[in-house]
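# step 3/5: fold
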Amino acid sequence: MSIDLDAYLNNPLWSILVETVHAMVMYPHHKAYTAEKILIEQPDITARELAAKLGIPLGEALVILYEVREERRRGEGQ
């Protein structure tokens, strides 16, 4: 089962989830590892797969994937 990220982005609690994830001590490291290693090898990884692979909460995986993919999308458009 894949997760429809748009359903989360339009939820009023999305900003609270993002704020909570950003406060996590290991978040910057998980995000960097995801961007520099995991997405290179598995560009289509799902949030559930990322959460299992890193042993992190699903919410953190959702935020990481959203942010890294958005950063890449914006970088490609410039």
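# step 4/5: annotate
The chain has a mean pLDDT of 91.
# step 5/5: archive (pending)
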